[in-house]
Write a structure and sequence with these properties.
alpha/beta, TIM Barrel, 23% strand
């Protein structure tokens, strides 16, 4: 399947959301918020993560069931069109600054040229969505890309185009540390099971606190995901983590979502620049003041906007 054919299958639903068709499937876009804890104790939507929801008729399938039926030659184009609908559906929310995390698998691309071609498609999708490139976060999901040079080339090109880069499933092993050094990401998403294991005792929490502090000092924003209860949120706050995601905060919703009504934007676009950890070294001081990192021993009050949790 050529990329051109799948892009021609973009669908605009009656509710204004974007989806696409592939064989007998309709592929819809679900968005899950990533919240930022502000210095005044409130939580604000910083970003979304794009998740595919495949339907066969009216039956919802798992992503694994979908991809099991996609031949290898179609995976690259499938990956591309899913990024496109996530970007378009985030733009349709018309929030002034929310970013979208989209998965990117460098191992799918055989040459730097192929990778650059896909980055250009993403740039065009962002333009159509009315979003600047820095609101698109390309999340590198795989730990062991077959050609680390391609990964570095991709990350450098993304930054040159104005996009942001994240790595997923960080677990502080040797390969994970090397990934951070190689890719120089804007965000690091911690591997859920690994982080949860270390959060169970004081020694593990102390190690996590050191890692989080080191990343923040280097201009990298840690993201803790799959948070399931209030206790895990409180532990993240104690660790100095500002960006959090999980069912304890908000479940994914099919686009167009109810998030605008439930979680109105708290900060204007001008203040959003305070959280840009990549612009220059001077951003580090306002980052620490505005990112919501609480001194230890102070129990924060968690509220969303003017509402309770």
């Amino acid at each position: 399947m050529a990329p051109k054919s799948i892009f021609s299958n973009l669908l605009r639903e009656a509710d204004g959301s974007w989806s696409t068709a592939y064989a007998p499937f309709t592929l819809k876009s679900a968005l899950q918020p990533i919240f930022r804890r502000l210095s005044d104790g409130r939580f604000d939507i910083d970003s979304f993560e794009g998740l595919v929801r495949p339907y066969q008729g009216s039956q919802l399938l798992s992503p694994a069931q979908l991809f099991a039926q996609v031949p290898p030659e179609d995976i690259e184009a499938m990956d591309s069109i899913l990024r496109t609908i996530h970007i378009l559906n985030t733009g349709a929310l018309e929030r002034s600054r929310a970013r979208i995390f989209v998965n990117f698998h460098p191992g799918l691309f055989r040459t730097p040229g192929k990778m650059r071609q896909e980055v250009e498609r993403m740039r065009l999708s962002a333009h159509e969505a009315g979003m600047s490139p820095d609101r698109i976060v390309c999340e590198i999901a795989e730990k062991n890309a077959s050609d680390t040079g391609l990964v570095a080339d991709f990350a450098d090109h993304m930054r040159a185009m104005g996009f942001r880069v994240a790595i997923a499933d960080y677990g502080a092993g040797d390969s994970d540390i090397e990934r951070v050094k190689l890719i120089k990401p804007d965000y690091v998403k911690f591997e859920t099971a690994w982080a949860r294991q270390f959060m169970r005792n004081s020694a593990g929490a102390a190690l996590l606190r050191v890692i989080v502090k080191q990343f923040v000092g280097e201009g990298i924003e840690p993201v803790f995901e799959a948070l399931e209860d209030e206790q895990e949120i409180e532990l993240c706050l104690d660790l100095g983590v500002a960006l959090m995601q999980g069912y304890a905060l908000a479940k994914p919703e099919l686009a167009p979502t109810t998030f605008n009504e439930r979680f109105p934007e708290l900060l204007g676009a001008s203040r959003a620049a305070m959280f840009d950890t990549r612009r220059d070294a001077l951003a580090q001081a306002p980052l620490r003041a505005a990112s919501g990192l609480e001194p230890r021993g102070i129990k924060p009050v968690r509220t969303f906007g003017k509402r309770g949790t």
